[in-house]
Amino acid sequence: xxxxILSLKEINLHWGANPVLDALEMHIGVxxxxxxxxxxxxxxxxxxxxxAGIIEPDGGERWVQPGSRIAYLPQEPDASxxxxxxxxxxxxxxxxxxxxxxxADVLIEDLDIKGDAAPSTASGxxxxxxxxxxxxxxxxxxxxxxxxxxxxxxxxxxxxxAFLKNWRGAMVLISHDRAFLQNLTTACLWLDRGRIRRLDExxxxxxxxxxxxxxxxxxxxxxxxxxxxxxxxxxVEGISARRTRNQxxxxxxxxxxxxxxxxxxxxxxxxxxxxxxxRSGTRVxxxxxxxxxxxxxxxxxxxxxxxxxxxxxxIIGPNGAxxxxxxxxLVGELEPDEGSIKxxxxxxxxxxxxxxxxxxxxxxxxxxxxxxxxxxVFVGGESKHVMSYLKxxxxxxxxANTPVHALSGGERNRLLIAANFAxxxxxMIxxxxxxxxxxxxxxxLQEVLADYKGTILxxxxxxxFLDRVVTSSIVMEGDGTVTEYPGGYSDYKALKALTExxxxxxxxxxxxxxxxxxxDAPKKKASKLSYKDQRELDQLxxxxxxxxxxxxxxxxxxxxxxxxxxxxxxxxxxxxELEAMRDTLDExxxxxxxxxxxxxxxxx
Length: 604
Fold this sequence. Notes:
alpha/beta, Rossmann fold
């Protein structure tokens, strides 16, 4: 077996009195593709910095195979010391290769970076792409990537996936993007309570394994508690029957009690809840033929959409396509250049912005939650002590007076969600809400959004999260084209492929009519389907086929006789979803029939 490229032995690291890494041991093989998983605040980024040699642990040994190069992508890259983004990227090359700037040019083109731009003018997405280029340019033997998909659009994420699939070296990834991890990893490192566990299978098997580990721990703890109870009874009752104590047995009891005290149980679940509001009107937003241009470029043109109460709309597209602009037009913050927007009645809106504009660095955690007014948070019209509310979102009460700038990216995002979810709403706007959140929090956020009674507009590049949350997707292709598709990201890709395939025969050249004089040509009827109706008719067959496939798959899952007993929550949600999807299929089929009848009547 080849020696590892890097090893950590007996690594200890403490922040204050709390152990972050406790006698940690791990090895990274020369071709390992590892995902590093753990709750926010467990020390994933800290461990990655220890692996990179950036943080010196309190104790233990770090060994790197001689001659091996390591490249590290930080969660929040800083390029301020460089004049241009190209200079920043070139900084990733070894000193003896600084003349090979063609390598930077290739990555600059592939990642669509303005190499001559100053870092201070770069957007979050462009700075992230430049940091990726800097990390990849030196072709290291070990890649350490901390949330590499943050601020990237789906096209760039897919480019990065393809690039890393062909990577010959080792890599360790921290990411909340399930699809990204599923497509790339072959083993998992689970950082939990200061210790590392390893699963030599990809991320697709991780959650099943995690539940098994928690179950085994709970069973072992239950047995330990039973033994302690029995031994305690012996220590009390048995002494009166003996003139001398069994000192060995007592020492064993004391040792077990000490072991039980030292058990660090698994971190609890985030207890997320949403403050309700009065129902909005049935019609939330209606946009008719809206258009918007910016800096001479058309972002969208003649786009119409009707959003009703309870809809969950995903807005998908590459960076720069105009997603945020479309969002602002839809909610009335910006006027369209053409067309009209009608907002429904009784709307109460909350916005969770990826820029976290509501969080000021000098504010404390309590200030954010209470608005600087005392120790109480009002949730759904009821008051709750801020310390209790902090615990609901997995914050230790000791952080209550911590300034925002001292929190990790995940903690800041969780704090922003906590502050906004306390406000009453019936329209929720989520702009990249998944950035920096751990997967357990993402799962619970998804469940809360599924139970939300209002309407959701979600901008995200997280393919898995879109698939789990949204009922319809507005896709901006980046060329001014905007199309609405039923379902999430995977549905959009499948429907688009089916639509393009169905349209192929229509692209073949039609035979020219044998007409010698234009005056002799037969007169065509002026009446025909409108462009919008014709486009809808063209898309309906593929949509019906996709819905039928999904219904068939759901029926197959529900036919499992063990599902009800094993996972009642899944059974219940799947049953409701199936009923709603059957209704949607009926509506689509009726609409298809109406449009076909209309087309035939116009052709006659």
